[in-house]
Every structure is written in structure tokens, then in C-alpha cells.
Amino acid sequence: xxxxxxxxxxxxxxxxxxxxxxxxxxxxxxxxxxxxxxxxxxxxxxxxxxxxxxxxxxxxxxxxxxxxxxxxxxxxxxxxxxxxxxxxxxxxxxxxxxxxxxxxxxxxxxxxxxxxxxxxxxxxxxxxxxxxxxxxxxxxxxxxxxxxxxxxxxxxxxxxxxxxxxxxxxxxxxxxxxxxxxxxxxxxxxxxxxxxxxxxx
Length: 201
Hints:
Elements: H1 2-8, E1 14-16, E2 22-24, H2 25-30, H3 33-44, H4 46-72, H5 77-80, H6 83-93, H7 97-124, H8 130-154, H9 160-180, H10 184-200
Antiparallel strand pairs: 1-2
Helix pairs in contact: 1-4, 3-4, 3-7, 3-8, 4-7, 7-8, 8-9
């Protein structure tokens, strides 16, 4: 939930990644979500993973609406005596509604795609190891996320060449982070076993 909220509020600024590719800053953190949802799927089940996605979206909507109220509520005379005060919070927290909607829609579609793929292998191909399940789901989800979000958020807003750079940069970075974080599945598993052993002693 924290990953999604933090990523959403830092997604409007892009940075140079490498070889001319760019990436929204929020995506640097969001890339962890693919393996994280696999962890939930593995140890708590498909339904709990889907529930977590819905709760994360609700939390994001609540935060966005709260910040809009924060911006719109009139301040005291002291606050309004300096126009920079209002300009500052509007600049930092101002609604990028298209970006927010694109992010939440993408999150819902892509994370449920990831959950479905991972659960399919877990339920129907139990001989396939956890790392390969996560590898398969992430290989589909990370590029899907990059393409869908950038298309929805930035089409007709920034040049197509820049959108393509964002897509390619996001795909490479998200795949790298999601693959690199796969060992978390085994770290959590070993900790779970150790905890169960401690409880039986």
C-alpha cells in the first residue's frame, strides 16, 4: 500500500536513466510491487492478494481527495497574506488527475494480471519453483505496466518519442528490479519456517 501511494505522488517527474531513456521517479519504487504481490499471492493466497490491490486503490483515492481538500480549504488571513504559500502547496500537491487515474487503473489491471499468472502456475503447475512463477508473472506484468501507464498518462501531453523513452526505460528498470527481488520469496519462506520451528519448541 505504501509503495503504491508513494509512487503515485512522485510519478509526474521524469529522470534520465541510461542511454537516453527516462523513467518517472515513482516507478523507481513501484518496481518492487510485482514481487511483493507475488509474496502475498504465495503465502496468503490469490484472494488476499486481490484484496490488497483493492485496499491500496481505496487508500490512494482517499489520499488524493484529502490533498484536494487541503488545497481548496481557505487558509487564515495570515496564511493568505503571502500568496506563495498557496502556490507552493498547489505546485507540490496539485491534482494531476489524468496521471492519478492512469496510475490507479494500470495498477488494478496489471496487478490482477500478475496475480492471475502467478496463481495459475501455483495451482496448476505446482512442480514449477516459486522463482520461475514470479519470473513468468513479472515478465508479463512489468512491460504491460510500463506500456499501459505511459500511454494513458502521457499521450497528447508529451512527444511520442519521449513516451517511447519512458516505456522502454520503465520496462528495462522494472524487469531488472522485479527479477533482482525474486529471492525475497525464499527469504520470507525461510523466516516463516524458522518462526514455525520456534513456535513448536
